[in-house]
# Entry
Amino acid sequence: MAACIVGVTLIMSVYVDELKSAEPYRNNMNWPYRWFCHMFADTFEELFDLAESIGLSDRWFQHKERSWMAHFDLTKTKRRKAVRAGAVEITSREWIRRHLHDERK
# Structure
């Protein structure tokens, strides 16, 4: 997805995966929502910029051993806001396949 601002094309590299049921996780976490997804990006800068623009707190960021796995969990409402703000919808399988392929190079 690209946005055009005053004749300049910007490539958005923030992504959201599909919504998943939170039911399997609700007993292990204090998670009051029924649905969630992940928001991740090619760079931390873009991830945090979009997170801030949709009202996410930095403390909700989940850093992982592999930087490409770092993400925010989003509710259904925050996912809609992220997509409206330019996040690209992608499946979690596509994201993982893309990065595992990159690691093997």
